[in-house]
Write the structure tokens for this entry.
Amino acid sequence: MYKIAILDTNALKNKGSYGRLVGALRAFHETIPQSKVTVFHRYYDTATPEIIDELKKYHPDFELRRHPWYVEKGSMASTTLSFIFKFLVCAVKQIASRKNSPYFSDFDVLVDLNLIEPDSFNDNKIDPVNIVGQLFALGSIWNATLSRKKYVVCSATIGPYNNSIVRSLATHALNKVSQITLREAFSRDYLRSINIDQPDIRVTADLAFLMDVNGVSDRVKASDQINIAEENVVVGICPAAMMNSRLGEDDYIRLMSDLSTFLTEQYNATILLIANTFQDTALVEKIYERINNPHRTRIIPFSASATDVKSVIGICNLFVCSRFHALVGSTSQGIPSIGLVSYSYNKFHGIIGQMMGLEEYLLDIDQDFDYDIFLENLKKKSQSLLNDGESLHLKLLQKTESVKKEALQNGQLVSDLISRTKPHEGE
């Protein structure tokens, strides 16, 4: 049996991170069925037994362990101090071990699901929190490569990095890994531009496309639970607290409120407000308080599971979304969708725009943003999709089939890498 260690994922209450881990487990189960997967999780202390049991459905031989040096402590200051201390201890131990890592000696390959996210905003705004996160992620890669194990950065978006220190560290750390698979072509071109040429680099697809729901039965259940009649026009809205400086929170709330008013008046629509990450729950509440027709609006509880949320998205006639992985959830079900892009431009346009063919329906919030023009364009796009979205629905379903095959390639490439190394004794 091959042993795979997955290093680092975001909090599993984050629906996108959960979807990516589900996709990784499914990819490994299908391409390397004789495998054991261990996830070293920095949010280990908050992972509930229910989530762990759910994940075992995707890969029965799965377990969760605490990350050796990256453990969330509840505040950035305490997390940083803990990271620095444990990071140095683990690095010294791995260097001193010479041959067998005290942490990863049992594993055939280490797989990093951390996205090494780029500078977040489209306005060249420097985000210190984001930079610290990048340093943690890249430092963790360097530390793990001290184990001398095959190391894969899997299904990632990488760069661009505006900070020269981060950029230099990225070049150093990423040239030490064995393989990098990417979610879109922008990252491949960027890696070339900063002289990352040692790993095998491939463009695949985002792992979250592999998280399925049980089709019609789950959608009917979702409709019943939130009391929506079959004939109703349903519009899902998924906001993001990460905003470009050209659109502050108050104006963003007004934008969502104005759009909701338009859709309820023109189409008698029911509005579903969805938070895909815990950072967005307060924003959803603020939008609900501003909406003119609250009786036509539902808030989907954040406690709902990722698969339940995806089922809810699947009953929508239109999905308006500022969160990337929620767009994966909608487009992978063929739901006509509009993406409001205020961060990680390459991720949205490379995957949702180019890979899924939805470029026409990605609206950038950037330096040219004008509220009235943007709102009018958003209304027109919404009308277009509500009046004639069937062709896009079929196109998205066709695209999804090919994208899922590309996402499974993440597992196949890891399998190929393992097969080129010596298996465990006795296997």
The chain has a mean pLDDT of 91. The chain has two domains: 2-210+402-419, 215-332+337-388. The CA atoms of residues 205 and 222 lie 28 Å apart. The first strand starts at residue 2 and ends at 7.
